[in-house]
Every structure is written in C-alpha cells, then in structure tokens.
Design goal:
It is a single chain. 37% of the residues lie in helices and 21% in strands. With 559 residues, it is α+β, with helices and mostly antiparallel strands. It folds into three domains: 113 residues, DNA ligase i, domain 1; 197 residues, DNA ligase/mRNA capping enzyme (D-amino Acid Aminotransferase, Chain A, domain 1, 2-Layer Sandwich), CATH 3.30.470.30; 133 residues, Beta Barrel (OB fold (Dihydrolipoamide Acetyltransferase, E2P)), CATH 2.40.50. Strands 3, 4, 5, 6, 7, 8 and 9 form a seven-stranded mixed sheet that branches. Strands 13, 14, 15, 16, 17 and 20 form a six-stranded antiparallel sheet that branches. A hairpin with a 5-residue loop joins strand 14 and strand 15. Helix 1 crosses helix 9, helix 4 crosses helix 8 and helix 10 runs parallel beside helix 12. The N and C termini lie far apart (53 Å).
C-alpha cells in the first residue's frame, strides 16, 4: 500500500489528465499479482468492492479515531487540530503516525491484496461485537502502515473519501494504457462487469472480449444538458431529434435477470424495497433479461402527479399496504440499455427505442414513454407550445434526444437536451463548505446554505454542488479557508445547524442566489423546508447576509 499511496498522491498533485493516466498505468503495470491488481484498481474508484457487491464496511469516524488512538496514541486535541486544518480524516489522522503502542501488532508490509482481505473481514463482521471486531481489524491495517502517506490513504479507502481527482473514465484509460488494450474494449467490459478490478485482470490477460454482462451492477446514467428557456434553440436546428416529456419523478435503472429484479437510483444505490409493485410488474410482464432506464412517477390513473406526492414513498425500506394504496406509482421507461446477452449502449437511440417497443410496456405499472419527432424548421413558438402541453400533462418540461445518439453513461453532452423553466430563486448565505470530489477534490466546492427564520436565526435549507466556474470555486476556496469558524464557535454551529462532520463551518458572509425545481416540506432540516435540485446561479456580492430570504418566502413558494 505504500506504493499505492505514492501513486495516489502523485495523481492528486497533478491536474493533467494525461499525467494522471500515465501514473496510474505505470503503477498498475508494476503490480506482481492479479489479486493486487484487482484490489488496487477497485481502490482507485474509492470503493473497494465491486458495484454488484452488497458488501459495506460500516466503519464510522468514531471507530477509526478509536483505532488510531490505540495504535498511535493520538489525542482528541491533536485530531481536532488536524481535521480543522485539512477537512480530511485521513490526512488528520496520518500526520500523527508513530510506532504502534502494541509492538506485537502485525507489521508485515501491507499489500493491496492483504488490505483487501482485511476489508472483507470488516464487511463480514456481524453481531453484538461487530464494532469491536471492526476496530481491531482497522488497528491491524493502521499498525502495518510504514509511513504517514500510506496511513492517509488507508484511512481514505476505509472512509470512501479518496478524492484524488480520478474519475472512473480515467481509470479505464489507465488500464488500457497499462496493458495496451483498446480503450473502447476496456470501457465496454467495465460497464458489463461492474467490477473494475476484474476488468483490469482481464485486460492484463487479454480476455476483455469474454467479460459478460453482470445484471445487477448499475451503470452510470446518461445526463441531459439544459437549454435556456426562451433562447433561439440553435442546438435543435441541426440533426434529427425525438421529443419526450421530462417527468417529475425519480430516475430509476431497472435490472431484470431471470426472476431477479433490482432497481437503482440516480446515485446507483439499490432502492428495490421502496417500489415493490414495480419489481413485481417487471418480473411478471417482461420475459427477457433487460436493463432499462426510466422514471418512477406518482399517478392517478393516466394522470401523473406532482413530485411532492411521491416523496412519501422515498427512502423506504418497507412500504405499508396503506402507502401502496394511497400513493400508486408507475415506471415510465424511455431507454433499453441491454437485452439478454447484448449490450445496446453503442446502438443509436432509434435502435434502442425499437428494442424497448418490442417489450410492449403498456400496463398500469409499466409504461413506455411516449415520444414524437421534432420537425425540421420548428420555430421557438412550436417548442414553447410543446413545452406548455407537457406542463399541462403534469410534467416538468421536455427532453430532446438525438436519434443517432449512443447511450453515454455518466456524460452530459449535446446528445440529450432538457428544457425546463425555473420556478424562482432564493438568496441564501453559505454557512458551511465541504471538499469536492473527482476533479474538484482539492477545492471547497460543496456549499451548505441557509435562510433566515422568523426570529432572524439561520436555518439550513440545502446544499449545492454546481453553478460556479472553476475560477470562482478556486477563489472562494481561498476565502473560505481564511474564514473558517474557530473553536468553540465551530462546535456550537455544528450543533445549532445540525451539520455533518465532513462540513466545515464558515463565517456566514457569502450570499448566493439559488435556483431549484421545487420547494417541499422536509424533516431533514430544522427549517422544515428543502429544495429539489438546487444549483447556484451566481454569487451575490451586491447583497449582505442581512438581506437574504426568509422561510416565509419558501412557504409562499410551496406548490
């Protein structure tokens, strides 16, 4: 793991994609065994387990801290100072590495495969003594670390917070370069297998073509880029487009393999238990093995209901008979990504829609999304007429999809375009920030924001990750680092605003304008409100924190 840590740190220190790929390729190529290669490739994704695996580590910050205290003797005061300085538990703990207090601890060099074995033991820990068992295993890993850098990345892998600016696409490129394999073959195998470790081993062995589709391993969703409402819609002037309604529901990817059905959310988390009637409908009504993309919506017969009706069904591990009756839902399917043994991602949209049509989804619970063609020479007025018709049907707006477009997992380009009209904006103040992920791992790009309560107190209403330019984020990172709240004020704000430990409280001085799709009531925040899909429109340098909006405005905006 020492060499893994050195490679990861080198990747984190460069912004060049080509340099990241080269460092990764050199490291992967140097690994002596397939077991080390598979484990290291997975570690670089930030998740040590394959996508299709249900294994989780369930190691909390308290367990990690206790393990570090036992192995290295780090104090609470030292840890607090380190965490405030970096916002990174791995870096905060690792700087206090010293000889283990128990010299009898396992001290052989920690290889990726040996570390993977420890992580698997952690994931398998069950029962009343599970937390203690996990702590002992973490102590074993920490005690084997030979340097602060190695310890830093061991902790990062355990917490799932690698944050070195290495997207999965770059890992694919690194594997391809390491073993002289075609990038397209590695990418296809990665999407099919759902296990980048197995793909790395297959690339080394030259057996990528034999990697089969692993139903149950979610694929990143293809995304749509926004069209500005009221613009000239120049992007629609060329090419051939299909037009669909944009549904006000929950994006869901469905995998059916024989009688097994699994549903995955936009974040690739399994949510099958929340939608038992959809699982049963897919099992009963589709004969083929398929991977589908679509939206679950609340319905009243043929009518689609607002998202707020659907909210009571979200994040449920069990759904009562009363809830099934009171909030009926349907799965509106608009894409077919795989059928039986064939991946359809590289097929044009027209071909995928034909495959979807062959499934004949026209029941109460399963529906194929209606579509029509955008005629050549359509005017702005034509587009707006379609938009208003979609709104009358209870949907958010329109999605335009190029007929020749492949399905590009995780990408937001010009193949799919979405047209919505903003409800309103809210002026709020940033009260806490977090380090970003991927290419923004080294900047504070995640902003928690608040409005004023009736008594003037600050009340959190959400968190935004997008909207500012890289230059603006870099500038704001410097400002936030210089204006972190000191102790004990930071501890007070953590409690008052109910912040997560990963959030860094800052001086409430930066006002941002937030756009969103809808306001809804929520128990997640003390304010009692939350915003759906919030995004930053701009920094409001012209406004002071005294001028931000109040919860009264949110109440007024409730649908």
């Amino acid at each position: 793991m020492k060499r893994f840590a050195e490679a990861a740190e080198a990747i984190a220190q460069t912004s060049s994609k080509l340099a990241k790929i080269a460092i990764l390729a050199e490291y992967l190529r140097s690994l002596p065994s397939d077991a080390d290669l598979a484990a290291a490739a997975r570690f670089f994704t930030g998740n040590p387990f394959p996508q299709r695996s249900e294994s989780t580590l369930a190691v909390g910050g308290r367990t990690l801290v206790a393990a570090a205290q036992n192995v290295w003797g780090v104090t609470d005061a030292e840890l607090a100072r380190g965490y405030r300085a970096s916002g990174d538990l791995g870096a905060a703990l690792a700087q206090y590495l010293r000889e283990p207090a128990d010299l009898g601890l396992f001290r052989a060099p920690l290889t990726p495969s040996a570390f993977m074995a420890i992580l698997e033991e952690i994931a398998q820990s069950r029962g009343a003594a599970a937390n203690k068992r996990r702590q002992i295993l973490v102590e074993r890993a920490l005690g084997a670390c030979e340097s602060a850098l190695e310890a830093k990345y061991v902790v990062k892998i355990v917490t799932g917070e690698l944050r070195i600016g290495l997207r999965e696409g770059l890992i694919v490129d690194g594997i391809a370069e390491a073993f002289s394999a075609p990038v397209a073959d590695v990418r296809r195998a990665a999407m099919a297998a759902g296990d980048i470790g197995a793909v790395a081993v297959a690339a080394k062995a030259g057996t990528l073509a034999s990697v089969e589709i692993a139903y149950g391993a979610p694929i990143a969703f293809m995304l749509a880029s926004p069209l500005q409402f009221g613009s000239e819609y120049k992007d629609l002037a060329a090419q051939s487009w299909l037009v669909e309604d944009k549904y006000d529901g929950v994006r869901i990817q469905a995998h059916k393999d024989g009688t097994e059905v699994r549903l995955f959310s936009r974040r690739l988390n399994e949510t099958s238990a929340a939608w038992p009637e959809i699982v049963e409908a897919l099992r009963a009504q589709i004969d083929a093995d398929v991977i589908l993309d679509g939206e679950i919506v609340a319905v009243d017969g043929e009518k689609i209901l607002p998202f707020r009706i659907l909210q009571t069904r979200l994040q449920r591990k069990e759904v009562s008979e009363d809830l099934l009756r009171d909030v009926p839902v349907a799965y509106v399917v608009f894409d077919c990504l795989a059928r039986d043994g064939a991946f359809l991602l590289d097929e044009p949209l027209e071909a995928r829609r034909e495959a979807l049509a062959e499934l004949r989804l026209d029941s109460e619970r399963l529906r194929s999304a209606p579509w029509n063609a955008l005629e050549a020479g359509s005017t702005q007025e034509d587009v707006h007429d379609r938009f208003e018709a979609a709104r009358v049907r209870g949907n958010e707006g329109l999605v335009f999809k190029r007929t020749d477009a492949p399905y590009a997992p995780g990408k937001r380009g010009k193949w799919w375009l979405k047209l919505k009209r903003e409800l309103d904006t809210v002026d709020a103040v940033v009260v806490a920030v977090e380090w970003g992920h991927g290419k923004r791992a080294n900047v504070l790009s995640d902003y928690t924001f608040a409005v004023r309560g009736e008594g003037g107190e600050l009340l959190v209403i959400g968190k935004a990750y997008s909207g500012l330019t890289d230059a603006e984020i870099a500038t704001m990172t410097e400002w936030f680092l210089a204006h972190r709240l000191p102790e004990p004020e930071a501890s007070r704000v953590y409690e008052e605003l109910e912040l997560a430990r990963s959030e860094i409280p800052v001086e409430p001085a930066i006002v941002v304008e937030i756009a969103f799709d809808v306001v809804h009531r929520s128990t997640l925040h003390k304010s009692g409100y939350a915003l759906r899909f919030p995004r930053i429109v701009r920094l409001r340098d012209d406004k002071s924190p005294a001028e931000i909006d109040t919860v009264g405005k949110l109440a007024h905006l409730l649908p």
